[in-house]
């Protein structure tokens, strides 16, 4: 069975359509509380409920903490009921937030896990230093497609909003276009720098490529992007030199500045750039150490920036007011984070359920998938 049949479904009219889930930036929360899950070098997964108090301050409530991997945790992702983490131990750990149970481990990769996404309904996508990208079914957690092409680590991948194609970047200094209808490589293009992160804008007519200290913005010549577009036809329209090492990047639509690019920086800040002219618009500075990653959440119609530093701080900023609302020290060297709507669990504490139902790694049933 090919990927085309696996990733498609029929609508009410019987027509075939792609079931996609473009990353929601920002994630909208109905109440005043959201959950932050962080991974760290110490192999521990932390969970905190963060309550926004009158839009002026925050309260951090510890929810869970447990050892999740045999090595440093490199990435974490959540979608609906599922939480997935990837580590340097080459393992993907799975948790069902709704049933509050450990689903086991996926061990089809033979290198450290570099990124995890839930881009399609019913599917998860992982990348690894082994040069492979794997599309998993969340129904039975079997690999549905294994995409190979990069010579060395696949650092990141981004699914186009249409769901028809994906862009990946790797240590081999190439960006590769993948036809998600067939699960095959469609094109490859050499680039000047090693791509560490790649993101599409919301419209899907541009993408940003992050390297160690630069962000390059590319414009798609073809107005209706499809899997057969040649990467030779893309046009670099902007290059931003940030003068600092970069660790994470995301497109965001700002209420005043429109489409912008946010980057997490070595110089203890998160910088916001105009995506059209590269002008530095805002800077969220004052972190205790390098900012490793960040997320954006919308609470009661207000957008908040959530950052994680390598010294263990989680900070919450009001993006529009550019104001620091709160900070929590985890005492761990943070590497990644994910923001979750806690409503999915409908329990007051996952820690209590962890003790009862074996959510901790000890005694957890492993579902080994090769």
UniProtKB/TrEMBL annotation:
Superkingdom per UniProt: Eukaryota
Residue span of region Disordered: 1-22
UniProt-listed InterPro entries: PAK1-Kinase_Regulator, WD40/YVTN_repeat-like_dom_sf, WD40_repeat_CS, WD40_repeat_dom_sf, WD40_rpt
Keywords recorded for this protein, A-Z: Kinase, Repeat, Transferase, WD repeat
A GO MF label: kinase activity
Alphabetical list of Pfam families matching this protein: WD40
Matches recorded under SMART domains: WD40
Protein name in UniProt: p21-activated protein kinase-interacting protein 1-like
WD repeats: 147-188, 284-327
